[in-house]
Structures are given as C-alpha cells and as structure tokens.
Amino acid sequence: IPGGIEETTIADYDTVMGVNLRALYVASKLAIPHLKKPSGRIIHISSVQAYGGGGGPAYAASKAGVVNLTRDTALELAPFGATVNAICPGYIETPIQDYLTPQDIEDSRAKTPLPRLGLPSDIGNAAVFFASDAAAWITGTALPVDGGWMASIF
After folding, report:
1. pLDDT of 44-88, one tens digit each?
2. 3-state DSSP helix/strand/coil % of the chain, to nearest 5
3. Four-residue CA torsion sign, 55, 56, 59, 62
4. Active-site pick, 13, 25, 51, 59
C-alpha cells in the first residue's frame, strides 16, 4: 500500500503489518516445534526499506519489524542448532512493482550500483543458501540482496 502517513489509513497500516509482520510471526510460531533441531531453518523476507525507509511508513516499519523478529527468533532457536535469517531484497523485477512509473523504475536502477535490477532468482539463490548446510553457522542475519543499493546509501 503506497503512500505516506497522511495518505494511508489506520486500516491500511493494519493490513500491511498483518501481511508483512504478523503472518511471519504466526508461521514461525507454528513451525518452531518442528524446527528444534540442527537442520531447522526459518527464512524470512524483509526489505532494504527496513534500514532506509522510503517505502511508506507502514511498509518500512513492518520490514524493520521482520529484521528484529528474525534476530529474536534466532536467539530463541540457537540452543537447538536451528537457524533463523532474513533476506532483504532491493528492487526486484516482479509484477507487484507494476504500480511504479517508468521514472520510478529508472530511479531505482540509478540507485543500484550493479548494472541491472534484481530478479526473483537472486532472492531464491539467497534462500537456497540459507537453507543449506553452508549456512549452518549463520543465524540472526538480515542479508541485503540489493545489487549494492544499501552500500550506496549508507
């Protein structure tokens, strides 16, 4: 739901928080009993907007909440050897971005140091990594998959 705090309603805010944060909390809570083992993995999807804002106050707040949910859940599951991590995509070319104007898309591209926008497979590759044994000693991490976007703003 795009828009600033003045344009969005409280119902809009509740919808965004419900989809982006509460749903992950509920899914994680229901999965935890099955994941209390060294091969257990939870992978959340956040956003680079968790750190820089700009996606609208409800969206940015919900994605920042995902990062902190990830960290706290990682600490809770660490004694069992399970890991919890988040992926923070930058601009990814998907149909959900259809509301953006060509200028919005070009602005996003211009802020991305690598010479292309992200693809869904970039996010999938990060998820495969977090689910693999190669990431068995990584937990509580929020990984930007953003073509260098965060490096260019911080």
Report:
1. 999 999 998 777 899 999 999 999 999 999 999 999 999 999 999
2. 55, 10, 30
3. positive
4. 59
Residue at 4 is within a domain:
no
Rg (CA), the chain: 16
Structural domain range at position 147: 10-153
Structural domain total, the chain: 1
For residue 88, give the H/E element and its range.
strand 83-89
Residues with Cβ within 8 Å of 138's Cβ and at least 6 positions away in sequence, in order, are 83, 85, 130
Reply yes or no on whether 59 is catalytic: yes
What are residue 118's DSSP bridge partners? 92
Is 85 within the bounds of a domain? yes
At 105 the pLDDT is: 81
